[in-house]
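Subject: complex prediction, re-run

Hi both,

The earlier run crashed halfway through, so I resubmitted it with identical inputs.
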Amino acid sequence: MLAATIRVAGDIDVAEECVQDAFSKALVTWPKIGVPVKPGAWLTTVARRRAIDILRRQSTHDRLLTEVVRHDDETEAIVGSDSLIADDRLRLIFTCCHPSLSIETQVALTLRLLCGLTTGEVARAFLVSESTMAARLTRAKKKIKTSNIPYRVPTQADLPERIEAVLAAVHLVFTTGHTAPSGADLMRRDLVERALELARMLRVLLPDDAGVAGLLALIVLTDARHKTRTGADGTLLLLSEQDRDQWDAKAISEGAELVRESLRQSPAGRFALMAAVAAVHAEAPSWQETDWNQILALYDLLLVSWPSPVVALNRAVALGIARGPDAGLAALAQLAPESQLSDYNYLASARADFLRQLDRRAEARVAYLEALGQCENEVERAFLERRLAELDQ
Amino acid sequence: MSEYLVLIYENEASWANADGATAGKMMAEHETFGQTNAAKLRGGNALHPTSSATSLRRDASGKLLITDGAFAETKEALGGYYVIEAADLDEAIAIAGQVPATFGGVEVRPIRVFD
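This time it finished cleanly. Structure:
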């Protein structure tokens, strides 16, 4: 509804006011006339009419008004149609994820305008105060307006890159929720659910896009494990320790199908490849039966199209599991100079684990301490501290 | 339609050390840019290097302070600009992306209209 109103109003703030007005009007009118058969359409019509009223009063928008009224006349008949609302949601997400906005701003706008989170809820997602987030969102909307970021689905030529940007933003929402960077809980279900919602929305709006299929697959497959990631007492459980019977079989089946679809595109996109790794884990009956060679091969492919140090780290871990801790340590050593990983606790903790397996206790101790220095999630910290204590036994 | 300022920031030392052939090539690239985008250009100029710049500020007492050089010391210096007209930021980026800026890059800034 917001998206459809933005299209008429040409301004996000004005549109938000019109939506509020429509709700207020409904609260007053519906008790008298009864709830309409299509309440969504009623609200949308009222909001859009209000937006047109506001535009009429702005003399500088006379030129725009003709366009808007023409659109309104054309679409009046189908204002309740799903395709109209779908188009507007697509326009809105591409606008929120415009490359001229920082990734954090893209995520904040998407959570606020597409997921309908309040400013306070978005602030909590970023662990900042509500006033800080309010200022950030205001600046972002101002930039959209003053730079004249167009409210539309990008042209064919720009679409692949712009879809990647949207997927990256949604992926960031998911990863932040899947393993919270800090705080008492391992997961933030609210963010995971928002990411899933967005990925499903994109799947409906862009049913032929392999990247979208890949991202949805990745989220669905990874989240299939969410019940088993912590034990009953809240402690971290490794993949090797999780009860696979508790994994969501229906989600795994859905995810596997989506992975197959997303891999039909050549070369395979990064979300498709990450989803494929998740599928190998999800379909393995046990840790021991996991096909690590296939996982290694997938990471090799992923590194080619996405040479990121984090991917290299993941590959090094897979190598260490497939070929033994010495090989893993050698691969990790090559990553030591990567500045992007200098604050990333998984580098030190991976090293610590391989050293532990080789019974090189003194070195493992140093590595666990290093990881603890960089880790802010309490569930993960508790795990690292347990490992550290075990070294002394 | 909106107007945007495209600011060209480049490393001055690289420019100073460029040989005749490189400098000539860059001038030709600017000419090509100008011709290709003639309909969208509203102005533009190359600037003399920051060594020719004079900066003015007022101190706490209101006295005018004159200093030699650019206002802010930056790794890349402002070397020139274009004023372009574009339907929206996407079009502005598409045009600005064609501006030659071998030794740096460009900034796209919307021009403010007061009504």
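The mean pLDDT of chain B is 93.

- K.
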